[in-house]
Design brief:
Blueprint (H helix, E strand, L loop, with lengths): L3 H10 L5 H7 L6 H6 L7 H13 L11 E5 L8 H14 L4 E5 L5 H5 L9 H6 L7 E4 L2 E4 L4 H4 L1 H6 L6 H7 L7 E5 L6 H9 L2 E6 L3 H20 L5 E7 L6 H13 L14 H8 L4 H4 L4 H14 L2
Parallel strand pairs: 1-5, 1-6, 2-4, 2-5, 6-7
Antiparallel strand pairs: 3-4
Bound molecules: adenosine-5'-triphosphate and magnesium ion (MG).
The site of adenosine-5'-triphosphate has 20 residues, from helix 5 and helix 14.
Length: 313
Amino acid sequence: MITPDKILKFIKQKPALNLSQLEKEAALPKKTLHKALQGLLTLNEKHCNLLEPILREYGYADELFAKAKIIAIVNHKGGVGKTTTTINLGKALALAGFSVLLVDFDSQGNTSQCFGVYAPEVQVIDAILDNVPVPILPVAENFYLAPSNIKMAYRETDLVNAIGNEKRLRNKLSQISEQFDYILIDCPPALNIFTTNALVASDMCIVPLQPEAYAFYGVENLFNRIYEIRQHVNNTLQVKGILFTMVSNTLVHKQMMTFVKEQYKHIPVFTISIERATIIQQSQVAQQDLFSYAPKSNVAMQYMELAKEFMTI
Ligand SMILES: Nc1ncnc2c1ncn2[C@@H]1O[C@H](COP(=O)(O)OP(=O)(O)OP(=O)(O)O)[C@@H](O)[C@H]1O
Ligand SMILES: [Mg+2]
């Protein structure tokens, strides 16, 4: 059933829709949708009934919102911005009105630490190995965390030896995916059983990449792993895009970005890239996401742009 909430989410995911045109086609008073998007008006049943047939022509379907889209933020190279991207893309989506769960799937626990969670009593690895629910901690409006810490590393062998080991996270997330619009999984810097679990559980992945030689050399192995997973276990896994991170305004970075695009013509690259900025390190010391710490900073705006580019249907 179409609801005001789903209508607004659909419109946000289709920035190419002309709101005035929609209002005209649905015979709604002018600016109804503009005001609803700004939170100045609540769409009522009559608005919804008028909009439903029009939006269906533009691709609306109830299934679009039936369960969360699951996205792995993945690169086995360390320190490329996976955690930073998970947290700030997640927060940007939550600020846009979507319900977002961050799954910390790295025993370093950096995503959890960002929210002040150091020693979660129950963590993601317990949920996937023992028969307990995924722990879900609210961290802000529309924004939730499934935490991890070093204990996850101690249980890696248990996971390797478990029946159906590669699908454990997928099975667990499928039980809660109706509660969220997006589930973002922060992966560890390794091509191990945890990363495989994350990719098997996901509809798509984002690959943060620094435009530097060493970062580029290893990425081929990651793409090979993704193809293997697609071939054998999860044939709908999509690479949503390479995201260039920690980019400086230097010739070498420009050349490297052009080179990557030429090498991987078949893989999308996000138009927006994330610049190198010390404000990111400062926000992490302050244990805040960028939108709380420095909402007007360039990098906050870049992560908001990324969210817009990412959520476009
Ligand atoms: N755009 C940026 N500009 C400057 N520093 C950044 C940027 N993005 C991330 N960093 C810093 O780089 C370091 C690594 O970032 P982050 O933890 O997000 O990477 P990661 O890929 O998750 O690392 P790991 O592989 O260890 O999990 C952190 O200290 C972070 O503050
Ligand atoms: Mg990390």
